[in-house]
Design goal:
By secondary structure, this protein is mostly helical. Helix content is 73%, strand content 1%.
């Protein structure tokens, strides 16, 4: 039973990371109908930024809490700026172009950012400090769940609730919903859709940076390629849950993470990706809109 709980909590932790990244995919798709394949690289850039800032602050003698707060804050702001810039450079000029054009642009931007970080840093794995402190009250349960896993789970739950409140009860959230439903009508009633799209990219990129910091701190190492596989898995999670749905992105991430965890624990780690993408194929066959997606032409 204890082994089952370890696998379950490991799956929930892994799924929570996928969910944080998938939220960015699903928000962008819900607003402009675009799959931002450069999103995984924003996650990677957030982790590298946190590593650089944490290293500098450690040399300067800052305490652990200050390093965590400042490194996370700088990484989120820097990643948000990248997301904003990527949207303006790679996607905004192609909004009226055929749908294939922004897709190709997204893939090109992903490759560009990977190689940019490769040249700026290194191709080797780099050690990442544990920025999440160990909580004393967790010691009796440390063999089942650690402090980093708890922080990841709580962060994902808090982010989903805050996003839900933002989209349902704030002015910018209403503008997002109006833009997602009909851009032309939204413009006619005074919605600045350029600002809405930029805010969407900024929020999604910030969430990706948070995910990058948490998973890098949890695993203890990073390299330039971590964004590619994480981005593919997060995209799979968004499709599983129903792309365009915020609860769907979180549910899809959890389902995918648990599937991988149990496949690794009870079958073999060699089949981890096989089970994950087999699940995606089955969902697309029997539930094309995803678990929580709606089978209509309207975006939600």
């Amino acid at each position: 039973m204890e082994y089952f709980l370890e696998l379950l909590l490991g799956g929930l932790t892994r799924g929570s990371i996928y969910a944080l990244i998938a939220l960015g995919y699903t928000m962008v798709y819900g607003i402009i109908g675009l799959i931002n394949f450069a999103h995984g690289e924003i996650y990677m850039i957030g982790a590298f930024t946190a590593l650089i800032i944490a290293s500098v602050l450690t040399i300067l003698g800052f305490n652990h809490l200050s390093i965590l707060v400042l490194a996370s804050l700088v990484a989120v702001i820097y990643s948000a700026a990248y997301g904003f810039t990527v949207e303006k450079v790679a996607y905004k000029p192609l909004r009226s172009a055929p749908r294939l054009s922004p897709l190709i642009s997204a893939i090109g931007m992903s490759i560009f950012l990977q190689n940019y970080v490769l040249l700026a840093q290194t191709s080797d794995f780099m050690p990442f400090p544990n920025l999440i402190p160990d909580f004393d009250f967790m010691e009796p349960y440390a063999h089942v769940i650690g402090s980093s896993e708890l922080v990841i789970l709580l962060t994902t739950a808090a982010v989903m609730m805050l996003l839900t409140v933002l989209i349902k009860f704030t002015k910018i959230g209403k503008a997002m919903r109006a833009t997602a439903q009909d851009k032309s009508m939204a413009m006619l009633v005074g919605v600045n859709i350029d600002r809405v799209i930029s805010v969407t990219f900024i929020i999604g990129s910030s969430l990706a940076a948070i995910g990058g910091i948490l998973v890098a701190s949890h695993i203890g190492q990073i390299n330039f390629y971590i964004g590619f596989l994480a981005g593919i898995k997060a995209f799979t999670a968004a499709v599983l849950g129903g792309i365009g749905s915020i609860p769907g992105a979180v549910l899809g991430g959890i389902v995918l993470g648990c599937t991988e965890s149990f496949a690794t624990g009870y079958v073999s780690s060699d089949y981890e990706d096989v089970f994950a993408f087999t699940l995606l194929v089955l969902i697309l066959i029997f539930r094309p809109a995803g678990i929580l997606g709606r089978s209509t032409t309207e975006k939600v």
